[in-house]
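wait is this the right file?? whatever heres the structure
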């Protein structure tokens, strides 16, 4: 079977779903291809900056219906327990991907978007048209948005540079029941990684950490690793020891790459983590993913209506807009990640931030954006 929608979106995470809601809201025929059914959990920090709220409201997505937690404070601890705290400049909210992704999925379907639960096996571009193959069908479209996440077989199909390189990072995530401040998002440093903690809906605590594989592989299982490595940070140990895991077992993903990616590959507009992954320690990946969908959707609509005269102009405008909004944040994230691998420097920086909270606030502003404006 061959189908010819206006836009095909490959991947149904936050970026893909936000793009689907936006484009279908504006009357375009959209097919979104996602390999797993909703609802489902995903490895994610599950904190979103309030910068994204104006856009969500414009999409008619009222996240208050999901009863998220309101988060206004940030805490950072070094491995030795030195702590720095500050108010978040904009604040944010905590919501699980299980709940939010399903909510966006339902909104996209309500808008007329068709969602296909299949795996893309091949994609090609010829004669100004994309051909997308899945295990069940073939689709053709003038526009394709790549929103399939951090790493995929599609990256191999497209021969993207980063996919051939091994990455030392893996991530672990689970939900817990326990005592944790509802208005707080915390980031705890440990040898070889960082752990983010915040509450989501229903009083659950989301604990998600990024770990260096070389350190991790020395241990037989996740529990042994956490006790031997994460517990050396006393604040992190206190949270983990006094929380009860809700998941049967933690979710894990490996080969997480923070290498630079191109926002456009083989004429596909990449959005979300597919275009570039900011270090989790910056705590703003979810907002950036949704924002990138907005940028791409607005340009695609202009292209569809002839306001952008050619594909090359569309691609150049998207690359320019993506770099303007995210390149500096990505750069700062990479610098911070490198700096915080040095134990002594982390202690010095955290001590300084503890006595002068404006330092921490300034760093946060460098990795977060302003409230999104709606044209």
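ok assuming it is, sequence goes like this
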């Amino acid at each position: 079977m061959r189908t010819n929608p206006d836009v095909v979106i490959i991947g149904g995470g936050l970026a893909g779903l936000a793009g689907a809601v936006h484009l279908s809201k504006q009357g375009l025929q959209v097919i979104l291809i996602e390999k797993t059914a909703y609802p489902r959990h995903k490895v994610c920090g599950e904190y979103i900056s309030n910068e994204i709220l104006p856009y969500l409201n414009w999409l008619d997505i009222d996240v208050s219906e999901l009863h998220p937690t309101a988060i206004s404070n940030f805490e950072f601890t070094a491995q030795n327990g030195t702590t720095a705290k500050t108010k978040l400049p904009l604040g944010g909210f905590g919501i699980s991907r299980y709940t939010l992704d399903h909510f966006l999925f339902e909104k996209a379907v309500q808008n007329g978007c068709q969602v296909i639960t299949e795996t893309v096996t091949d994609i090609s571009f010829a004669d100004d048209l994309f051909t997308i193959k899945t295990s069940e069908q073939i689709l053709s479209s003038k526009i394709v948005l790549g929103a399939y996440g951090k790493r995929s077989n599609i990256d191999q199909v497209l021969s993207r540079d980063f996919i051939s390189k091994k990455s030392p990072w893996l991530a672990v995530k689970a939900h817990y029941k326990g005592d944790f401040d509802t208005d707080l998002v915390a980031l705890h440093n440990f040898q070889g990684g960082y752990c983010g903690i915040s509450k989501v809906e229903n009083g659950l605590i989301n604990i998600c950490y990024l770990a260096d594989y070389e350190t991790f592989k020395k241990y037989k299982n996740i529990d042994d690793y956490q006790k031997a490595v994460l517990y050396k940070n006393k604040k992190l140990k206190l949270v983990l020891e006094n929380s009860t895991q809700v998941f049967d077992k933690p979710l894990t993903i490996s080969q997480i790459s923070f290498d630079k990616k191109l926002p456009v590959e083989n004429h596909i507009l990449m959005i979300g983590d597919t275009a570039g992954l900011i270090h989790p320690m910056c705590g703003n990946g979810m907002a950036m993913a949704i924002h990138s969908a907005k940028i791409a959707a607005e340009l695609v609509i202009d292209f569809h209506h002839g306001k952008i005269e050619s594909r090359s102009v569309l691609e150049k405008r998207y690359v320019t807009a993506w770099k303007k909004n995210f390149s500096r944040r990505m750069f700062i994230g990479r610098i911070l990640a490198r700096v915080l691998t040095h134990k002594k420097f982390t202690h010095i920086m955290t001590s300084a931030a503890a006595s002068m909270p404006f330092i921490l606030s300034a760093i946060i502003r460098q990795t977060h954006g302003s409230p999104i404006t709606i044209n």
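The domain at 2-42+94-165+257-339 is CATH 3.50.50.60 (FAD/NAD(P)-binding domain). so i think its the right one actually
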